[in-house]
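We modelled the chain as a single entity of 457 amino acids. Its sequence is:
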Amino acid sequence: MNFKAFIAIIVCKLLRLLSRLLHRGGTAMPGRIALRICPELLGILARDVKTVAVTGTNGKTTSARMIEEAFALADKSYFSNKSGANLISGITTEFVMNCSVGGKMKKEYAVIECDEAAARRVFGEIQPKVIVVTNLFRDQLDRFGEVTHTLENIREGIKQAPDAICCLNADCSLTSSLALDVPNEIVYFGINKGAAGEHRPSDISDATHCIRCQTEYEYDYISYGHLGGFRCPKCGYKRHEAQYAAEDILEHASDHSTVIMNIRGSKQLVRINLPAMYNIYNAVGALAAACEIGIDQETAIKALGMFKCGFGRMEQFELGKAGAKMMLVKNPAGCDQVIDFLQNIDEKFVLVICLNDKSGDGTDISWIWDADFEGLTAMGGRLRKVVVSGDRAPEMLVRIKYTGIPEENILMERDYEKLVDFISQQDDPVFIMPTYTAMLEVRSHIIERCGGAEFWE
């Protein structure tokens, strides 16, 4: 290891220690400074680590947590960037914090969540053994541009890591198209027709036409958005058979799902410790990654029923008489899946929507008009109140009024302290739908009130 790398490691460790003493987190800034001192630092440290990298629009954090649980149950020596700092600076910080001052890594494995745009550089630096691409949806247009630009970033990243096994979502025509021009071994995961249910094509599909010849896709089935059994009637591009797939959904509960999974031809009963269709995708992809990195099937399955959700992702808080659950939203497809989940709640509840437009959220909030908030009206009397909050609460208030929900059932509270007071006074369950920075802000007020881990813990 060269002298610059040695100095960069020391500086990074000291900055991290100072940040934690000041309760600032120190997830990205120490790594950013370290990379200025030694730009090749991440590549140097990652040489002796077997890494699983997870990228894609939705589900990165949850998928990574599921894989982590499998590593823990398998008694593997690993670390991860569980704080969600998924740019190269945050990833570098985690590698430095898991090495000695001399640069020797302390753990054999790493589970790394990676931002889609950062994948172009990060994958070449860390040379992962397994890469999971969860899905691709339109997201943060101000930052990523069109979804095809995001796809190109991931493609270029994968090409920089040709020895990685790529676990691709077979149901996402964009994601699975990566297999067309990368040299890597490909493994597919997905949800088969029998488990997908009856869904019509979505009005907000981000992939209506064939990525190869631009002919409109035909679908044998749709799970949600543009995910499903797609096929092009002109050039023949179609959904690949998935080696890891949900074959049947036996139970959709409010806090878990029970499914039959086909794992390379072997059918297994699997309990997933989270509800909703999108988390079944996360579970199948995580299972594929765990098995492909070498964890035995039984342990990987057990992990799906035991893992704890990532912060803000179906996270439960003991606040109010019936508790509060937080569900991060950031784009139309993910928002629609949360609304679909809420439609299956049998009891009365209160909904809180927190909308910010900071850089971590995406400054373009026009996506709220594409999301199916009209689905809230189908809940009738079960939806007692809708409370809007966040920097762009007035715009969210207008959006909810357009759904047809009576105005007397819509409140606006922009003061987070007062918002937490309101939640704590509710007799019914409260579901909180925040964008990313709003989630961090609201969550910090909640854990001050009722306890909980900091976001980096």
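As a brief sanity check on the tokenised model: Residues 3-21 form the longest helix (19 residues). The longest strand covers residues 244-252.
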